[in-house]
Every structure is written in structure tokens, then in C-alpha cells.
Specification:
alpha+beta; 81 residues
Amino acid sequence: MFTHYILGVHITDRLQNAAPVQALLTEYGTYIKTRLGLHDLETSTPGPQGLLLLELVDGKACEGLASRLKVIAGVDVQEMV
């Protein structure tokens, strides 16, 4: 049976936090099966907040990525298995 490891990542300031978040996503890229990015389009430019939904294939990698993302100021992470 396949277990789904899902992370919801809320980024409060995409301009400031996008680079460190992207660096971690690249580092954990081999474990990320699905990545969906959502953001507000209040005006002609994207809003400051963003939401990522990530599906990972490994529980330990999911825990590791979540703990490292939580260290970044302005990034909230929720886990679902």
C-alpha cells in the first residue's frame, strides 16, 4: 500500500522567502512526486503570499523537508499522511 505524504507550505512573503524555499525544494527534488503552487492574483501582479502543496514519496524525506522549511521565517508548514 502506498502512503501519501503531503505538505502544505504557506509563504507569507514570496519575494523574500522564495529563494531559500526553492533551494530546499531543489535539494529534496528526487522525493517530490507532485508540486502545486497557488498564489493570489489580486492585481495584474501576483500577491505577496503563496501556497505550495507537495506530495513526497518518502516519510523521512517529508519530515526532513518540513523541519527545514519551518526554520525559514514567514513559512508555515502543515503535514498530512
